[in-house]
Every structure is written in C-alpha cells, then in structure tokens.
Write a structure and sequence with these properties.
The protein is mainly α and 137 residues long. The chain is built from five helices and two strands; from the N terminus they run αααββαα. A two-stranded antiparallel ribbon has the order 1-2. α2 (53-60) runs parallel beside α4 (106-120) and α3 (65-78) packs parallel to α5 (124-134). The longest helix is centred in the N-terminal third of the chain and has 20 residues, at 18-37. The chain is elongated, with a radius of gyration of 27 Å.
Length: 137
Amino acid sequence: MLDRMIMLSEQSLSKAHRGRIKRTARGVLLAFGIGLCFMPHAGGSKPVQYVSYKEYALHLLNYDYKQMKCLGKLYGKESAWNPKARNGSHYGIPQGKSEWLKDQDGYAQVRWGLSYIEHRYSTPCNALDHWKAHNWH
C-alpha cells in the first residue's frame, strides 16, 4: 500500500500490476546497461586521467602552493605546460634534453621534471631562481 507511487512491491492477485513492474525493471536494466557501455576505458589497462598537469604537479608537491607557484612560472616560461613543446633538442613540459620525454604523456613529463628539479636544485623555487639568473635551468 505504501509503495503505490513506485509500483514495485505490491501486486494484486489478478496480476493487474504485472506490466508496470516489468516496464520498470526493463527501464532499470536499460539504464544500467547504458551506464556500463559508457564507462571510460572499461576493462582497459590505461588509467583514466581527470586532473590537469598543473593539478597533478601540485599533488606531487604535496600541495605546497609556494613551490607550485614557482613551478608554474618556470614551466609557463619553458613550455606553457604543453607536453608537445619542443625547443631544439629539448622536449615536453619541463623542456628536458632527454629524448625519452618526447614520447611520454604530460603526467610522465611532470614526474620527470620534478625529479630533475629535486636532484639538481632541491625545490622548484631554487630552480626558478637559477632560471632568472641564467635563463636556463
């Protein structure tokens, strides 16, 4: 009685509500099936990326906004955060000299660039200071 609006739990003995239940069940199954068809990379091995390269870098920097501001200026000047950027023999977002970078996606390039900065300068702000003094990092 309480479920008359939804029409799923109550049937009369004469089976008068059977059609409504079948239509509702078909609708639910159809919606579920459509949802499965549009799952991004369903069953694939490639992870789905939902964040920008800048958001990813911020995450890798443990949400240190000061360092992210320096990295943003540095990569903005170097490549404008374009993973396809090329300047002579320098490739990708960090404009590294490694040819490996030209075949990588932007996320791998950000990881590579932050690793390079960490090993050479320790922080993006130190790398930006070096860039300001020498016009390269």
